Amino acid sequence: MSYEPGASHEVATGDALEARLKAYEGEPAAVARAGKDAVNAPMIRHWCEAMGDTNPAYSGPDAMAPPTMLQAWTMGGLSGHSGRTHAYDELLGLLDEAGCTSVVATDCEQEYLRPLRPGDEITFDSVIESVSERKTTKLGTGYFVTTRTDIHVGTDLAGTHRFRILKYTPGRRAEQQQPDRRQRPPRPRPVVNRDNAGFWEGVRRRSLLIQRCTDCGTLRHPWLPGCNACGGLEWDTVEASGEGTVYSYVVMHHPPFPAFDPPYAVVLVELAEGVRMISNVVGVPYDKVRIGMPVRLEFQVYDDESVLPVFRAREEAA
User: Fold this and answer.
1) What is the CA radius of gyration of the chain?
2) Among candidates 74, 36, 44, which has minimal Cα distance to 62?
3) What pLDDT score does 293 carry?
4) Which terminal Cβ of the chain has fewer Cβ within 10 Å, N or C?
């Protein structure tokens, strides 16, 4: 018997549940919705200021919106969008009933087909593109749900945005038990992808590499596929000297995580080369970290597998 989205059914598990979930593939999640605001210069300016993106293409009379703003023009804000379609809510509800009550965003993919410029009015349609088979992850067991949103200006397809979440049943967490500090969980591993793999390969060799645009010479960090100053796609690397200063910092008190000992300082270090990166300061108490503190790079090995760049206060290093 086939399952129809929108019908009332008892909670199922295993193959029966997966059949019900798969029935939602191709169902609309949004139909002919309009962006709440036209593409506009103030939002572009705020975005560029937040990202530190000084590309001249995003300002002036012939400005275009940064392509990575694609999703921003579809967002409904606190009040949301009118004309909801219920298939997506029903799908998430079915997963909730099956015990997959937790959710985490995992990744997104975007395709850019037409520049968006101030004054453009966008419309968009979303579809539930896929629901995975049951997967077991470090977080727990559940299902990856992917939606695809097509953004239009008039009849032109401007871009496509795919967004993927994991709806899962939380696994048994170590913090639910009395922690044994002699058996501390391993430190979380960095996410390595095709854009930053070269950076982490350098770290493995105890070298901190900074991307450099070969068109305009601009240095950038974190690593990106293109230059945020001129848009160039070609790049090489320079090795950081390792000298820097604490540009800003926060002290983490919560949430607790077994691999860490809060409170601890998370710092934004400005390297001598001018780029900034997030890391930790070691060798000094969290309450002794200060803005402007000189630091020097070192590499710290965790549980014989993970190597991370950290910074030591220069006075401590001396």
Assistant:
1) 23
2) 44
3) 96
4) N
8 Å CB contact between 146 and 185: no
Res 9: pLDDT: 46
CB atoms within 10 A of CB 44: 22
Q: Which of 192, 214, 219 is nearest to 203 (CA)?
A: 192
d(CA 297, CA 312): 7
In the chain, which stretches have pLDDT less than 50? 1-3, 6-11, 174-179, 181, 317-318
Kindly list the structural domains of the chain, giving each domain's residue range(s) and its CATH number in brackets, ordered by start.
14-171 (3.10.129.10), 191-239 (no CATH), 242-318 (2.40.50)
Place of tokens 């503190």: 293
CA atoms within 13 A on the CB side of 80: 5
- Chain centroid to Cα 306, Å, comes to 21
Within the chain, residue ranges assigned H as helices are 14-22, 41-51, 87-97, 197-204, 314-317
pLDDT at residue 85, as a whole number? 67
> Cis peptide before 186, with omega less than 30 degrees from 0?
no
- DSSP calls for 155-212: TEEEEEEEEEEEEEEE---GGGS---GGGPPPPPPPP--TTTHHHHHHHHTT--EEEE
CB atoms within 10 A of CB 67: 17
Q: What is the pLDDT of residue 318?
A: 44
Helix 14-22 and helix 87-97, axial crossing angle in degrees, nearest 10: 170
- 32 to each of 67, 162, 249, how far by Cα in Å? 21, 17, 44
- Is the peptide bond prior to 222 cis by the omega test (within 30 degrees of 0)? yes
Rounded to whole angstroms, how far apart are CA atoms 222 and 125?
32
